[in-house]
Design goal:
alpha/beta; 5 helices
């Protein structure tokens, strides 16, 4: 994987809860990043990623139609956005699935902040 660009990073936010998408958008924009799109399910996320070509994706694991791990795999095969998995459950709930995924990391929704994202997006 090449160098990660943090400044000017363009995000796609994927979560089935509109309230969380709004909170994530505010947080990302407060950090100086741009939210280029939002999606409420896996199918919409895949379409948005193909159309918008984001640099990074904040991706909920528990989507209503397609598991977030599967969405991440499909996104990675179509390009190379940095994918950060999020969930209302903690890391232990997913065991080794996080480590073996194509994502650059995981953040519990309750711990989502700019510093945590920057730490994952900087190699």
């Amino acid at each position: 994987m090449g160098p990660v660009r943090v400044s000017g990073r363009r995000f796609l936010v994927v979560d089935d809860h509109a309230g969380f998408r709004a909170v994530a958008r505010r947080l990302l924009e407060a950090e100086g990043w741009t939210v280029v799109g939002e999606a409420a399910d896996g199918a919409a996320a895949l379409a948005a990623a193909a159309a918008l070509q984001p640099d990074a994706v904040l991706l909920d694991i528990g989507l209503p139609d397609i598991d977030g791990f599967v969405v991440a795999e499909r996104m990675a095969s179509g390009g190379s956005p940095d994918i950060v998995l999020v969930s209302s459950r903690d890391r232990a709930a997913y065991g080794a699935r996080i480590a073996s995924s194509v994502a650059v990391g995981f953040i519990a929704k309750s711990e989502l902040d700019g510093a945590g994202l920057r730490a994952l997006l900087h190699p």
